[in-house]
TrEMBL record:
This is Phosphosulfolactate synthase. Belongs to the phosphosulfolactate synthase family. It comes from Bacillus salipaludis. It holds the Pfam family ComA. Coiled coil: none annotated. SUPFAM superfamilies: (2r)-phospho-3-sulfolactate synthase ComA (SSF102110). PANTHER family: PROTEIN HEAT-STRESS-ASSOCIATED 32, PTHR48413. The lineage of its organism: Bacteria, Bacillati, Bacillota, Bacilli, Bacillales.
Amino acid sequence: MDFLSLPKRTSGNRTFGLTSVVDFGTPLGELKNILADYSHIIDIAKLGIGSAYVTPNINKKVQLYQEYNVKPYCGGTLFEKSYFQNKIPEYLSYLRNLGIEWIEVSNGTLEIPLRERLQIISELKEEFHVIAEVGSKDADKEMPISEWREEINLLLNAGCKYVITEGRDSGTSGIYEKCGTIKTDLIQELLQDIDPNKIIFEAPSSKHQMYFIKEIGPNVNLGNVKIIDVLILEAQRLGLRSETFYLEDIECNLL
């Protein structure tokens, strides 16, 4: 029985308000139990780093996600490993055989020239839903805000469904300082020119998630969410935690 006034959430086959979880090897039986209860608040599942390549029963895991209407894809590290070894055609065949329709084009470890990534995206977008990532996993590498803005816009214009802002599963690089502090100036600048519904902000901790919820609204796209934390995140989105308690009962970001 619903009796509280809560912020409105997107639902069903969402195009924004996304929760993208990271799966670092959740056992198949455990995953089935999680999805049975929480699949309605999970939209995308990243098979973290290159773990898909060594995951037992990977076909069954992919099929399980799809049965619960969750979109699985392989972490960008597997793309970069394939690129480094000149195995992109083999990687694409691997995805086709698994029935995976989403692909991440990243350069978090390698420095793949932007022009080359844009060309790859233009070729892949005819067959796959492409997600690109901006930012380095190296916390010592700093990108000017102007480059963040330009790169995100170019990637979206090239045909990406979404662009991920790098944050790692530790929240210590990309849009975060080494100590885990959010680069708020960067976020504020990006929000001035770019539709937040097209960005997936990596936010591995509750502290990070709550910042974006309060800054953008309950329907912000969040990634690198631990699969065991999806219910906590949904409660935060709905103002059911002290830090988000006063979110207004309005259709935030329902454009």
